[in-house]
Design a protein that fits this description.
The complex is a heterodimer of chains A (152) and B (464). Chain A has 152 residues and is α+β, with helices and mostly antiparallel strands. Chain A is 22% helix and 36% strand. Chain B has 3 domains: 3-127, Electron Transport, Fmn-binding Protein, Chain A (Pnp Oxidase, Chain A), CATH 2.30.110.10; 152-328, GAF domain (Beta-Lactamase, 2-Layer Sandwich), CATH 3.30.450.40; 335-463, no CATH class. Chain B is built from 10 helices and 20 strands. In chain B, the strands form 4 sheets. In chain B, strands 2-1-5-6-7-4-3 form a 7-stranded antiparallel beta sheet. A 6-stranded antiparallel beta sheet of chain B has the order 10-9-8-13-12-11, sandwiched between helices. The chains are: A alpha+beta (152), B alpha+beta (464).
Chain lengths: 152, 464
């Protein structure tokens, strides 16, 4: 998989899910709103709704282990990024546009496959936590024979 | 909160997400195409490949599953503990059949298969509070259950009544498909009957398609319909996989290249399909298929209820087929019921008919293929083809246009079985195909067990 294909996970129309784990080994999921990286995925920032991320934020504080999966709803192209969370903070007002752009693009794609804006408009987007993560491993998660292959 | 209250989440329309964790404490996320509800405390996932999720579960059985209701978009979290992986038994068979049906339909038989059914205990179910700011506006199709309950008894009563009142197989099939549209809003339906001699399913009636597709055949075990027939089990698909739609598009494209196959009727873009086996005891009568563009058109309620309706339909069809055979057997022979004459080899044009024949059609019977073509286009094959050829030969030889079911049945050269010969269904098939491909040549019922061959054209018969 080329770097360009890896970077598709940063496009503004992907489905983003965060996985975390507590001290007892109990994993947890949380649907995220947007994903950004300023340094070619050495680090990333993932945005999760404050209202649904209580377990995730608690897990970040205790174990710090984090997994982020970005998937294109139409072609199922998918990348899994694993690493250690550096910080979790409340997203700033100037980051609201990043969250909106990310989720609006995703909602637009969902509309194309039959899930209308009537439904996606109801999803809570703000306020959000911004979790900053150092990426240690990247895996191809696209369904098929290469699923699970480490890319970085 | 009960798992059964989340039935829409289990339809696989929005893929669910599972989080697991390895012994070193690193989480892993995977999307799931389908989660199976076993009971209020257990769910199952299909294992088709060995992957990171399975390796993690072997190290740490705890998992978190997130599901989304496709109508309300409400998310739910299930805390799970992996119990075991089953490689046989009723649950495995049910999950495997579904995967095999998709595989058969997409040419992936043997490659795309179930390795195991992973069973999980559900420790807790919680609504993800705060996921939605407000409930989305009601969807127009958001009341299937209420609607279903209103129609339940009346629908069953109506279908039973129509089956009982039907005077022949053709009217029975038409009434059943009409009932399914009126009471269940199933706008696109097909009935295929099992031809025991050929060992195939043959389309005998359809509703809601431009081309009826009557005569289209499906091998037992082929695709979704053939799998339902082989396994004698109902299959319901929602949000059809893109592979399945892709495969169907390819097949549809292929069928337009002029081959001698009748394309099976079908929507180009179905989102839901339900196929119900029609059985009486162990006897396979046929398969009823319904499809729709709405991904959540068919619910669990339909599945359970339509199995009852399917039994009613199967009994009605079987009774009609058996009754026709018994009546033919018991009927007193009359001058018109002598067996048809042996075939002749040279054919003069057939010109008899009620109306003046001004048009001309050429029918070619290919003996090796057991198939008749009309004006270069495929018409019909096997027993219905032999029946038509016999009638045309008899008409040419004697000038007769009136026939009885009995005299045709007595003709051993047609290869009809001595019992349960499905003669009526073969005649329906022939009648439909003539209506679609050669309207100038018609078989018209004149009385119970009698019909006439009506020609409005000169028919040239060629045998090769």
């Amino acid at each position: 998989m080329s770097g360009a294909r890896i970077n598709r996970c940063l496009e503004h129309n992907v489905s983003v899910v965060v996985g975390s784990v507590n001290g007892a080994g109990e994993p947890s999921t949380c649907r995220a709103l947007a994903l950004t990286s300023e340094d070619g995925l050495s680090t990333l920032t993932v945005y999760v709704p404050v209202s649904t991320s209580r377990d995730t934020i608690a897990n970040v504080a205790t174990t710090g282990r984090l997994t982020v999966v970005a998937t294109h709803p139409l072609d199922h192209h998918s990348v899994q990024l694993k690493g250690k969370a550096a910080t979790a903070r409340l997203a700033r007002e100037d980051e609201a546009s990043v969250v909106s752009r990310g989720f609006d693009g995703f909602a637009e794609l969902l509309n194309r496959i039959g899930i209308p804006p009537r439904v996606t408009n109801a999803v809570t987007r703000w306020p959000a936590f911004a979790i900053e993560m150092r990426v240690e491993e990247i895996y191809d998660q696209t369904p098929g024979p290469k699923a699970g292959i480490r890319l970085k | 909160m009960r798992l059964s209250d989340l039935s829409r989440c289990f339809q696989g329309i929005i893929p669910s997400v599972i989080a697991t964790c390895d012994a070193g404490g690193t989480p892993n996320i995977a999307y799931l195409s389908q989660v199976y509800l076993i009971d209020e405390r257990h769910v199952a996932l299909s294992r088709q490949f060995f992957n990171k999720t399975q390796r993690n579960l072997d190290e740490n059985p705890l998992a978190c599953l997130e599901m989304v209701d496709p109508l309300t978009f409400q998310a739910y979290r299930l805390r799970l503990t992996f119990l075991r992986s089953e490689k046989s038994g009723p649950l495995f068979d049910q999950m495997s059949m579904r995967i095999e049906a998709i595989a058969a339909h997409t040419g992936m038989t043997g490659i795309f298969k179930l390795i195991g059914s992973d069973i999980f205990e559900v420790r807790s179910v919680e609504k993800v509070e705060g996921f939605l700011t407000a409930a989305p506006a009601e969807s127009p199709g958001d009341a299937p259950t209420l609607d279903g309950r209103r129609s339940e008894v009346r629908g069953l009563q109506w279908v039973s009544d129509r089956i009982n009142r039907a005077c022949d197989l053709e009217s029975l099939l038409a009434a059943v498909l009409q009932a399914l549209q009126e009471y269940f809003y199933f706008s696109h339906t097909i009935v295929l009957l099992y031809d025991e001699i050929a060992g195939r399913l043959v389309t005998i009636a359809s509703r809601g398609y431009g081309q009826s597709g009557v005569g289209a055949e499906v091998e037992i075990g082929q695709g979704l319909i053939g799998t339902v027939a082989r396994e004698r089990r109902l299959l319901r698909f929602k949000n059809l996989d893109s592979d399945l739609r892709y495969s169907r598009t390819i097949r549809r494209e292929s069928s337009e290249t002029g081959c001698a196959e009748i394309p099976l009727p079908g929507l180009s873009d179905p989102q839901s399909v339900m196929a119900i086996p029609l059985t009486v005891g162990n006897r396979l009568v046929g398969v009823l298929v319904a499809e729709d563009r709405d991904p959540v058109r068919f619910s669990e309620w339909h599945e359970a209820y339509l199995e009852i309706i399917g039994n009613q339909i199967a009994l009605g069809i079987a009774r009609m087929i058996d009754r026709a055979a018994e009546e033919a057997e018991a009927a007193e022979p009359d001058p018109a019921t002598r067996p048809l004459a042996p075939p002749t080899t040279a054919h003069a044009p057939v010109q008899t008919g009620k109306m003046a024949a001004t048009k001309q059609h050429t029918l070619i019977y290919y003996k090796n293929d057991d198939a008749i073509f009309v004006d270069g286009e495929y018409l019909i094959r096997n027993i219905p083809a032999r029946i038509l050829w016999k009638l045309l030969e008899e008409s040419q030889r004697t000038g007769r246009t009136e026939f009885s079911n009995r005299e045709v049945r007595l003709d051993e050269s047609l290869g009809l079985p001595p019992v349960k010969d499905n003669f009526e269904s073969r005649l329906i098939l022939l009648r439909h195909r003539l209506r679609e491909k050669c309207p100038d040549l018609q078989i018209v019922s004149t009385a119970r067990g009698r019909f006439s061959l009506q020609k409005n054209a000169t028919i040239d018969m060629i045998e090769r």
